[in-house]
Amino acid sequence: MDAFVAEVVMAACKRPCSICRRWFMPHPRAGKRQKVCGRDECQRERHRRACKAWHERERDAVREERLEKKLKEAGGGGEVGAVVSSEAARDAVPLEVRVFIGVIAGLLRLSMRDAVEREVAKITLESGRHPLRTRRDGIDFRMGPP
Question: Cβ distance 72 to 78 under 8 Å?
Fold first, then answer.
């Protein structure tokens, strides 16, 4: 009777591999968690599926790692504000983002040019209101100290 019970228990523990569908006996330590048999092909496929699932879950982290790697390869050392070659930047950033950045950069350049022109005009206007000083504290301003 004990042999029969042992056989029933063992049969209850066997399960089909989720990849090859062959019946297998799970490892005692893994127990109910083991879904794949110990064959090399099934283990490789399980590993491939797990890696694929991780990459899908961690898509942003993977993209960030790739960008840091390209920055280091470009000589920037992966630091913020490092100089990056245009090829590395072009490869790291999608086309839509590059176009958007180009448009924003053009608008910033125009607004900066206008702001500088206004500031130059303001300084020129203000400098005409002040008298030209030739001496300061008894020292000739143009000649410097004795």
Answer: yes
